[in-house]
Hints:
Blueprint: H1 3-22, H2 29-53, H3 62-79, H4 84-107, H5 113-131, E1 137-138, H6 146-153, E2 155-156, E3 159-160, H7 161-178, H8 181-191, H9 193-198, H10 203-229, E4 231-232, H11 241-251, H12 263-282, H13 290-330
Amino acid sequence: MSKKDLGLLILILVVGAIVAIINPRFLLPINLANTSNLIGLFGILSIGQAFVIITGGIELSVGSLVALLGTLFIDFIAVRELDWPLAFVLIIALGAIIGLVHGWLITRLKLQPFVVTLCGLLIYRGVARFYTADGTAGFAFGQNFPELEFLTAGRSWGVPNSFFALIVIAIVMWVVLHRSVFGRYLYAIGKNEEAAKYSGIRTGRIVMAAYVICGVLTALSAIYFAMYTRSISPASHGQFYELYAIAAAVLGGFSLRGGEGSLVGVILGTVLLQELQNLVNLLGIPSSLNFAVMGGVILIGVLVDQQWGVFRARRRMIDASRKTVAGAAAE
């Protein structure tokens, strides 16, 4: 665990202690379970976003994708009566294809990630609303899918299964990001894409793979959100979820410039965000201020990241000058 991650963990514990003192309901099992469920749902989404951010890109369409893919999943199993494992695979495959298209547009046609994903944000939300005729996608009375509901919205030993899913995905993605050649390539591209290209890394394929990973994890989170809400209004479902994912990644130490960050930090960033949301609810702060809190958190995270970079650069310069002086004195 890096110093950044340790500092974030201490902040989480301090904020949690303060909230628990002000309102003891924070420590009630039902509240902790609900918060853990939301951590699982948003954590999966945030990990996908982190893989894109580390390359120096950004994915603004994840909220609209959650709405579109969630709508399609409910429609497949509730209306078209597809077996849920088949519908599950189709949605994951569709998420991968959308991620591949985004990556292709960015790497082959040299479009800006901001432009591509902003257009996706508008397109997918519009398609979802058109698909439902601006209505609502949901389950009919009495419809239930016991195995699917247990895996996505159920609990084991009192802990939401979505949280267990996050832990499993986080372990796998930690290995991919921190213990594989692919992960090292991602960091290299984020630091300096041109240098990575000249060193023999196929940067286009690596960046496309990052967007595919993001698409797959977004599709998975869309299924979890769909089963959690059980009813989707495409006009509002998933709205601003991209902000939650970006904020979690930034708080977790992922620089928007690319090339920095740890997966542990993303999980801790997600925990802190949901803790803050819980604080807003328990302290009776108007829910209309939720997005103000989110914006403030993102701003503070970016400022801390920028100042930390300046501090590290100064430290390196001071260390280098001390070595130079010591070497000259030795001569």
